[in-house]
Amino acid sequence: MTITTGRPAPATSHRRGRVRQERLTAAAFLLPALALCVVLLYIPFVYTSYLSLTEFNGLGDPEFVGLDKYEEMFSDARILTSMVNTLIWVVGTLVLPVGLGLFIAVMVHGLRGSFWYRLPFLLPYAISGIAVGVIFSFILQTGGALTQALELFGLPFADARWLLDWPLNTIVMIVAATWQGAGVNALLFSVGLQSIPKEPVEAAMVDGAKGWTMFRHITWPMLAPMTTVVVGLSIVGSLKTFDIVWGMTQGGPGRVSETLAITMYKASFMLNDYGLGAAVALLLTVVTVTASLLYLRRQLAPAKEF
């Protein structure tokens, strides 16, 4: 006959104590990171959300005005233009820097010394966005280097106002961003290509697949994980575009080339309308997070089925 004392067995008690100690240790390591996130992310987000509901010029106390700043934001034609420009940046970034990066990576993959083919495209990534903007501003400004070269050789578009007319100015700024970012995209795609197993490629080659057929049915599907990373980073980066635009046009002329990030900066720090700037910042945050989550959810959904 077994007599139960009601006390846990020593081994069970020791195991529970060890689990409790491990949880406390994990919490001790997580708390600094959690505190940092709260201080640097969540508190500013909550305060920005509050400011977006106020009239505040940086002096005195914010005056609560409800949704007036959001109504002003969606009724201002200049801000609506910056929304359109931001959308153009998203589409243009996916087509040019990502597309060109993929093309470069596929073209040099498997070649001896492929690193040296990618290097000229990778070097501009080491230059800051403001510096890229200054360089291309010198080239594309009225009477600049490009205009003089076209006039010298008698080529068309010598009279084009590259940085003055919309949407041409937005398009040429996306080209500048492509010069800076295509190389790093090519590098990421090259890493993805090197991780593709050789067996499916060799089997497809035995079946006679090559060129576009090989890329469409073998390379591109197996490159999907890296494509998810590159496209996701490009979407987030294009939504927050600031430095190249500021370096080339500062959103002008007449604010026609502004993006939402430029609009947010001007409203807050040049016009001292912190309520409107906070509303634009909140809109930009919501759009960026929503676009990222929707894209990642769609891309990672098939993986959840396995």
From TrEMBL:
Subcellular location: Cell membrane
Highest taxon of source: Bacteria
Domain ABC transmembrane type-1 intervals: 83-295
Cross-referenced CDD domains: TM_PBP2 (cd06261)
InterPro entries: ABC_transporter_permease, MetI-like, MetI-like_sf
Keyword Cell membrane: yes
Family classification: Belongs to the binding-protein-dependent transport system permease family.
The protein's name: Carbohydrate ABC transporter membrane protein 1 (CUT1 family)
